[in-house]
Amino acid sequence: MPLEVLSHSELFQGIEKKEISTALSCIQGTVKKYKKNDYIFTSGEIINCAGIVMSGSINIVQNDIWGNQNILSHISLGGIFAESYACSYKEPLMVDVVAAKNCEIFLFDVNKIINICSSSCSFHNILTKNLLKILANKNLSLTKKIAHTTPKLIRERVMNYFSYEATKQGKHSFEIPFSRQELADYLIVDRSALSNELSKMQKEGIISYNKNFFSILI
Questions:
Q1: What is the CA radius of gyration of the chain?
Q2: Within 10 Å of residue 199's Cβ, how many Cβ atoms?
Q3: Are 95 and 62 in contact (CB under 8 A)?
Q4: Thinking of the domain 3-143, which architecture would CATH place it in?
Q5: Please, how many CA atoms are within 13 Å of residue 67, restricted to the half-sphere of its CB?
Q6: What are the domain boundaries of the chain?
Q7: Which helix (H) or strand (E) covers residue 178, if one does?
Q8: pLDDT, tens digit, for every residue of 133-151?
Q9: pTM of the prediction?
Q10: Alpha helical stretches, state H, 16-82
Q11: Which of 62, 173, 175, 214 could form a disulfide with 70 if both were Cys (CB 3.0 to 4.6 A apart)?
């Protein structure tokens, strides 16, 4: 298992790379491979496992009964997902977890973290604290998602999201993790309407872009 990836995961923050193997003995788990567009978890499932992206990336997707898709979040290398549902024990998934690219996923039972380790290992408290921090950050992430999709106009949603990315990445030129369709799904807008709005914004000198690379000009 590539410990380099796990050493950069939020779950293992504060644990030395050479000690991660020992920490893994607490939570065990398994690595599985998925191809692009494969479903890792599906809506309606009851799960007790969370996952860490070891390679590639995934999308957390919500589909309504009419087939409309809404990307709630994009999880890249080292990111953790499904921990909230895994901790809730009996709450069925209301989302799908889909491979955005070919990926490898480390799946582990969160009960191995929540329950006190029988061997009282020194890493267990760190894992528990990190898991709580991750849960809190995910709640904040959903709040940001609401902020990006609250404005009525497409341009306002785009500018809100781009402003967030520019601030997060600390520069006016940045790369986003979404294709054009994925960005439309994330912002809950029509793809053609989004593309038209981006084109208008570029012509007006507000932004420039090439695929998923964007620059804020004013």
A1: 19
A2: 11
A3: yes
A4: Sandwich (2.60)
A5: 0
A6: 3-143, 150-216
A7: none
A8: 998 888 887 888 888 999 9
A9: 0.70
A10: 17-27
A11: 62
Q: What values do phi and psi take at 19, rounded to 5?
A: -100, -5
Of 2, 14, 1, nearest in space to 134 by CA: 14
- For the chain, the straight-line distance linking the first and the last C-alpha, in angstroms and rounded, comes to 45
Q: For residue 97, what are the CA distances in angstroms to 30, 37, 164, 202? A: 17, 9, 24, 33
**pLDDT over 70 at 31, yes or no:** yes
Helix 154-169 and helix 124-149, axial crossing angle in degrees, nearest 10: 150
Sheet holding 30-34, edge to edge: 30-34, 103-109, 49-55, 80-81
- Give me the CATH topology for the region 150-216: Arc Repressor Mutant, subunit A (1.10.10)
**Structure token pair of residue 17:** 């790379």
Q: 173-175 and 80-81 as β-strands: parallel, antiparallel, unpaired?
A: unpaired
Contact 113, 123 (CB under 8 A): no
Question: What gap in Å lies between CA 15 and CA 26, rounded to an integer?
Answer: 13
pLDDT recorded at residue 71: 83
d(CA 182, CA 48) in angstroms, rounded, equals 28
Tokens 């061997």 belong to 119
Q: Contact at 8 Å (CB) between 175 and 209?
A: no
